Amino acid sequence: MNKKQIYILATGGTISAQGDEGKTLGYTNGVFKLGSIIKTLKGIENISNLDGEQIFNISSEDMCIDKLLILAKRINELSKLDSIDAFVIMQGTDTLEESAFFLNLVVKTSKPVIITGAMRPATANSADGPNNLYDAIVVASNKDAVGKGVLVVFSDYIISGRDVQKVDTFRCQAFNGKEFGCCGYVHDDIVNFINKSLKPHTINSEFNIDNIKSLPKVGIVYFDADLDSDIFDYYISRDYKGIVIAGSGSGMISKRWKNKILEMTKNSIAVVRSSMAEGGSVDRDNLDEEYCTIPAYTLTPLKARILLSIALEKSNSYDYLKSVFERY
Ligand SMILES: NC(=O)CC[C@H](N)C(=O)O
User: Fold this and answer.
1) What is the value of ipTM here, to two decimals?
2) Residues in domain L-asparaginase N-terminal (predicted)?
3) pLDDT, tens digit (0-9, with 9 covering 90-100), for 107-138
4) C or N: which end of the chain has fewer Cβ atoms within 10 Å?
């Protein structure tokens, strides 16, 4: 078998963390660098050749869009090299789903791009990082991962970057693929793809970040029935170009918010309605006609923020943004 050349981009997170005496809490991220993490993998040399770099050393709470742009541009640059077959990104889990969707939209390669991380520090008795990283490399090395868009490999699951969601704060099975996104599983060296995302991604996405240095600001506002609409004044005063509402149920909002929303959409601030509910979708509603809002369909508020920001870079026309949310 021809061994694949896998390039690992390490960014920090719990997979690189050191804690106390086998414990899982109170650890320090970023202590172990890429080279020492790779050394903990037993048997990987039979699967692939590894190379890589420590592109950042941060907790994923700090993985802001500016950093994601740097990461995506680096992958785009490296993906042109024949000497690299696939990529594995290691990052903290807290914002992993945003990174996965962002890269899924702007990385221009059909080579596998796999993201993984860990829920337990590398020094914990129950450290899950080595197995997740091993699995991610196995999937990255598999021919069936080609052209599938950015994938997350975590606790034996292969999940589409579009649909992956963090669903737990401490258990190792911390990720799911909403109800649509689990693509398959990995079990030692067995990779079994069962589903794939049909939404446009990577080389079929219309978004190109080559000449982009920053993206328009988009904020998420989490709804509750007592929250005053002046919350939006903060975003307006700071030149946010878009707002994603994490609405109740199917993206619903109170009467007291509606006039403010109309004022914003009339002033060319895009407003997308998503839901705080875990499953289901926010579909088009009379509200959208009346207040010029846009439904997020099956995208969570976090994913909708990423898509809106990338799309706003191209255009803030209502019809364009509406069509982007229908298609992605
Ligand atoms: N389990 C984790 O990776 C969380 C650690 C940290 N908050 C991060 O996201 O980087």
Assistant:
1) 0.96
2) 6-196
3) 999 999 999 999 999 999 999 999 999 999 99
4) N
The residue ranges of every structural domain in the chain are: 4-204, 218-327
**Tokens encoding 325:** 């949310």
Any ligand 1 atom below 6 A from CB of 14: yes
What spacing in Å lies between the alpha carbon of 100 and ligand 1's midpoint?
15
The token duo for 104 is 């899924």
Q: So which residues are the catalytic ones?
A: 14
Token pair belonging to 71 = 């990461």
From the options 3.20.20.70, 3.90.1150.10, 3.40.50.360, 3.40.50.40, give the CATH code of 218-327: 3.40.50.40
Q: Which residues contact 143 (CB under 8 A, 6 or more apart)?
A: none
Give the model confidence (pLDDT) of 5-47 as tens digits: 999 999 999 999 999 999 999 999 999 999 999 999 999 999 9
4-204 and 218-327: identical CATH topology: yes
